[in-house]
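Lay summary. Proteins are chains of building blocks that fold into shapes, and those shapes determine what they do. In this project we predict the shape from the chain. Here is one chain we studied, written as its sequence of building blocks.
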Amino acid sequence: MACPIQLSMAVDCADNVGGVKKLFLAVFPDNNLSYSPTIASGVITAWAGAAAKFFTYSVRQGVATGGSNSESDGKSGATSYTPTFSTQVEGITAAKNVELDSVIKNRLLVIVQLQDDTYWLMGYKNGMNAKLETNPGVGMSDFKGYKINGTGAEAFNWYQVTSALIPTISA
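And here is the predicted shape, written in a compact code that computers can read:
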């Protein structure tokens, strides 16, 4: 059965600014998706059980990314997506060490807030795994802090999250 193509796409006006403003991280629920979102046409419009589960990571412009690559296999007929994110956390402290140790030891749900103030969820079905790099820098003006990179594997690309949900799901 073919997948229908339903939209024509014109060239948008030149106000399509890129970049990530914030990331929101939550522990992936291992108990059969206990956070149960309502999804309509690729948009999460309600999210039972997710109240105060996501922690906000604010970032400087140009240091955080969120993306996804697709892969289709003509022999098997399968398509999958590899969502990715990266960010930096400035400064090295004992409290940040402890917190980020917990981040990388869990599978994560990740929401990115883009520059256009839309929100997108990655890792919905399988979660995302993160790696941590602690970087003290070399020179006086070098970055000193943590770099976090995450990847996942999903059968569907990002889900958009209605902006009205963000205050209720943020811790």
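What the prediction tells us: The helical segments are 94-105, 166-169.
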